[in-house]
Amino acid sequence: MKKTGLWLLALLIIGLGLAAFGELRTEAGPFGLRLGFAWGWPGESRFVIPPLGEIRVYTHRWPVVLSATLERIDLPLLQHELLGVAEASLYLESLLAKLRINLYWFLAKLCLVGGGAGLFVAVLLGRRRFAFLWRMAAAGVLSVLLIIGGVLADFDETAFQNPRYEGVLAAAPWALSLIEEGLDRLPAFSAKLAEVAGSLDTVWAKVNTLSPVSNGEGEVKVLHVSDIHNNPAAIEFIEKVITGFGVELVIDTGDLTDYGTALETELNRKINNLGVKYLFIPGNHDSAEVASRLRRYKNVIVMAKRIYETNGLTIMGWPDPASAGTTSLLPEEEELKTEAEALQAYAAEAGTKIHLLAVHNRKMATPAPMGIPVVIHGHTHQPGITQEAGKVYVNAGTTGAAGLRGLGNEAIPYSVALLRFNRQDGDYHLAAVDLIRVYGLNGKFILERTVIHKPAGEEGGNSESKE
């Protein structure tokens, strides 16, 4: 066999060996973990908490998936160790020291697997000379070191600011708090971990008792919803997010209905019972009749072309021109351009700082007025977060999974965006956005966080999301 073919065969068997045997069960203090190595793209790190879900972070570009699965918690030992904890950071350092030793053992095992795979190739080829066996074993070990070295050299610790959570909706706030607050709240976490450590047969019944971590001081959580399109299940979804994440304000960027009739509004009358203020921007599928009916709800404000102040934020709303009933369901490009110009003029003359602009169709905020760092919109049913020219654009997608038109299409998720505003130096700025998708209300749940950094002297932020 030619040398090129030999090395390709060796690399293939080494890769298969790592995939088959690349795991190690270990302990870090009271926590029993299973460390894992697998091939996958994009490269990521995973923290798995069965059966609540997993946190994924895109930490490197190599096609390698590193995972840590929580398999066991020694609760008596955890409680005993916590009794002597004066500083959470010191306890964390001791845990990390133990984990670091275990990682060295994990690396040693991977090297052994690589060396064993090299020897297997040599035996497979029928070459039993000691020198050849030694070289193939060394090549296997070096291949593993090269792979792990490449991952470590490319490893981005700041990526943990933008985690992606997949699992049970009720547990999402708690799971993300493991990254947000770490061991500062470990005593509170131990009670939650106890529920996971019990029988898996009963933990599902207990998941709904998990409470969210309380808001940090000076934080306002704004839930952005859009394009419900007559789907009452969307209100159930919104209610769960409000309760689980401690939402204080909801902004709906339109298309609550399909045909703009008052009867359709009745399908979503539970909006009146959400328990938080609900700002509504009429979309092109809404109407003056829908707006009139919503104004009867005690917690709803139907936004006109003006600026509102609530929860410490200054919010500007601009309804879709079709909602006035003087134009077609889909306004012409020229009409949208005219509305965008009127919006620009109004914002320029307002003479006040605006934290957020809410529209249904982004074309009405293109370009966004100067001095407005955040624009939220819907209409396209495509959830996403983009940053352009120092401004952050957030599209909640379709909170009603496209309504009746989406029935039977499991590829369309229920989606919302959770905007987190932090108060610094006497004012609020957007600190992060959690984009939440649910594929069927009892199905797959995905939360993807984007941290927004605000450079000194700039009005907007820079998104560091990794897709």
Summarize the structure.
It is built from eleven helices and 20 strands.
Which characteristics define this entry?
single chain, 467 residues, alpha/beta, Purple Acid Phosphatase, chain A, domain 2, 2 domains, 14-stranded mixed beta sheet, six-stranded mixed beta sheet, 11 helices, 20 strands, disordered C terminus
Can you offer a commentary on this structure?
- This protein is an alpha/beta fold and 467 residues long.
- 34% of the residues lie in helices and 26% in strands.
- The strands form 2 sheets. Strands 1, 2, 3, 4, 5, 6, 7, 8, 9, 10, 17, 18, 19 and 20 form a 14-stranded mixed β-sheet that branches. A 6-stranded mixed β-sheet has the order 11-12-13-14-16-15, with helices on one face.
- Helix 2 packs antiparallel against helix 6 (186-197) and helix 3 (88-124) packs antiparallel against helix 4 (130-154).
